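<instruction>
Derive structure tokens from the sequence
<data>
Labelled lines for chain and fold
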Amino acid sequence: MSGRRISKTAGASNVFYSKAIKEGLPTLMGEIQLAMQWSRPSILVAVHKGSRGQEKARAQLKKEILALGKKVRNIEAGPRIIPSILSSPDHASTVFFVSGIGGLNEEVRRDLYRELNFQRERLVENRIVVVLWLGLQEAAEMPRFAPDFWSFRHRVVEFAPDRGAAR
């Protein structure tokens, strides 16, 4: 695990950080920049163990995308997610952040996986740039329940937990 413990002051509580966010964000950002530059699709998967680290990574990535003059649209996972993305105005200059798959009940989640599996080509044909923010369970489920979608993805970035291991 890539992490280091740093003490603010002697006797103070220890602060942990992970280098994974420093490695994962540039990877995602590089893929997004290339997709925008070459007007090509990019299906990216960002995997986090916890929601706190995911929120920090999302906020930082959004900030970097906005600095490029591009838009970010947050989409909560649910039925008809691909039509929702495709109906968005300016999808050529927008990066879509999809999250919340883990919060869906099992039946809706499986319907979503089925939709991703059967409509994946629409994302590619329309040159959509999307980041799916997944927890560990969703990352394990997706290749099983949406194998064709999984094979279409361009990159998976796994972020380490928010807290590194103590030395």
Q: What stands out?
A: The chain has one domain: 23-157.
